[in-house]
Amino acid sequence: MKRLWLNAHAATMRGGRYSIIEDAALLVEGGRIAWIGPRHEAPGGADETVDLGGTWITPGLIDCHTHAVFGGDRSGEFEMRLQGASYAEIAAAGGGIASTVRATRESSEDELLASAERRLRNLLRDGVTTVEIKSGYGLDLASERKMLRVARRLGERLPLTVRATCLAAHALPSEYAGRPDDYIEHICTELLPALAAEGLVDAVDAFCEHLAFSPAQVERVFQAATALGLPVKLHAEQLSSLGGSSLAARYRALSADHLEYMTEDDVRAMATAGTVAVLLPGAFYLLRETRLPPIDLLRRHGVAMAIASDLNPGTSPALSLRLMLNMACTSFRLTPEEALAGVTLHAARALGLDAELGSLEVGKRADFVAWDIQRPAELAYWLGGDLPKRVVRQGEDVR
Ligand SMILES: [Zn+2]
């Protein structure tokens, strides 16, 4: 079955640029792009033709950093903070990440599935066809397994490609209070090997920060992941400069994420390793941060920049990846073209999927969105709204 899609302009994102084809046609066979180019050069022999109605098409959007599976939410804390309560007061009242860990542990797998599905359907409506989901609110073997199983089930239930990342080294669970090295040891020798053996883990992540884990502790986790043949990623340099992104680069990490406090040495190390810089403007916005990630340095050294929602209940309850494009442009001064590359080709790279996804090129999967817009910059320009006219995954309409 060969289907020819036509009557659309294409921002193919080949090479991380718009790489525009005006009045394009796209031939899809077996869920993959068999041909793409100007309509007047399109090959014959299609079984079916679909008119895209003068829209713009881009690759399906890729949200390469989310914590979309969690119990409860933190809207109550959000309200308390705005009524004057401090972070410390909220934490003392059992709030913060500890409250999400509690709610996640208490939720059944089906409850977590239902709430995460509602969140992901919002992303899907907004043009997302691939999403990464991290564990990290379970912090014990059974609860981390439960979260990762939910991520796998979401990939089966929804027309989305889901990558599951084990983030057991997200925070110290209360059972291990004062014994972080023991918890890291448990992750490396029991938790990670068990979950990897069950086929639940595509990558391993950690949170390198004073209020989480030290570079030495993160390195133990990276060693364990590497021994299991799993790629690594890292939450690094969000609130202080610990050299986490250089550590990630040493382990050839797929990505280092946040990065507000990274140094030029970190940038150099990531450039050499080909580690993607994942920028998370939603958390920057919600925390009202003022320290910007070093965008010019990243550009100058040629580090690929991805943009993600960081969808999580505490610091980025984002249900639109496209809104993050605007925030990346407005807060971080990315160009709309860089921002779009950040949720397509570079996001695919941050998941190790760039051979399959992230641009409209022959041989890649036919995941694309037809947008009701006049030019690609509109994707970063509008704040919210419903812009996708069709969302297509592996050659089939999913919206
Ligand atoms: Zn995160």
From TrEMBL:
GO biological process: L-histidine catabolic process to glutamate and formamide; L-histidine catabolic process to glutamate and formate
Residues annotated to bind N-formimidoyl-L-glutamate: Y137, N312, G314
Organism: Pseudomonas indica
GO cellular-component term (any): cytoplasm
Positions of Fe(3+) binding: H65, H67, H235, D310
Gene Ontology MF terms: imidazolonepropionase activity; iron ion binding; zinc ion binding
Annotated 4-imidazolone-5-propanoate binding sites: R74, Y137, H170, Q238, T315
Listed name of the protein: Imidazolonepropionase
Recorded name of the encoding gene: hutI
